[in-house]
Design a protein that fits this description.
single chain; 231 residues; elongated
Length: 231
């Protein structure tokens, strides 16, 4: 009985201590103040095991198709380079300011494709990684995974070539698309919904593998920041 009472007292004290720790704001949540080493290791292990468990049964499609890789390049260049960078790119404001530090493009190239797909689709809590699956169909996510698989042997010139020939940022979900000229029509396909309404990821989408014929000189990757934005 005495042991039970002791355990109850210790449990109550632990709850009081945890409440005080949270209520008094003792823990610093600032992104420029790293986690305690033990906290970081626990979170890292938790994240890795959680992703591995949930991605284990994902079926990986063929990822060596050139058209699939090109489609992934356009979306990656628009959605991912600010955090994960790209071959030949320098650090950005986001890549320097985020904590935990996001993996670079070269690190992404060594990730299990099932886990890469799961992370891109579902995101990761408290990491800055969005759940792109809320607005992006699976086939477009696989395109980005296919691109990542090419990163270990990719040069900056090859990356820019893929982006320029990709047809740009197109994944058929979660965007308001109002093409202003024939160029955008060629990129996104001729069959559009109401241009004033956002497209749902559950609506039929244009085939990302289809060749998009762009006018000469167009289709080059766009800069992720306004040139006028200087620190």
């Amino acid at each position: 009985m005495k042991l039970i009472k002791t355990l109850v007292v210790l449990l109550v004290l632990a709850f009081i201590g945890a409440g005080a720790f949270i209520g008094l704001g003792i823990y610093n949540v600032a992104a420029d103040d790293p986690h305690w080493s033990i906290t970081y290791r626990m979170m890292e292990t938790l994240r890795e095991r959680s992703i591995s468990t949930r991605a284990a049964d994902i079926k990986v499609p063929p990822l060596d198709d050139e058209a699939l890789i090109r489609s992934g390049a356009g979306n990656f260049n628009s959605m991912c380079v600010s955090c994960h960078l790209s071959p030949g790119a320098s650090d950005t404001e986001l890549s320097l300011g985020l904590y935990p530090v996001p993996p670079t493009w070269s690190e992404l190239g060594t990730t299990d494709p099932r886990e890469a797909f799961w992370v891109v689709k579902h995101g990761v809590k408290m990491s800055g990684m969005p759940a792109w699956g809320k607005s992006m169909d699976d086939k477009y996510i696989w395109g980005m995974v296919a691109l990542m698989r090419q990163f270990p042997k990719m040069t900056a010139a090859r990356y820019q070539q893929l982006v320029a020939s990709s047809g740009g940022h197109q994944h058929g979900g979660g965007e308001s698309m109002a093409p202003a000229d024939s160029t955008l029509s060629a990129v996104h396909g001729a069959d559009h919904h109401d241009q004033e309404a956002p497209r749902s990821s559950f609506e039929p989408v244009d085939d990302p593998m289809a060749e998009a014929e762009l006018p000469s000189g167009e289709g080059a990757p766009k800069a992720s920041h306004d040139d006028g934005h200087v620190h």
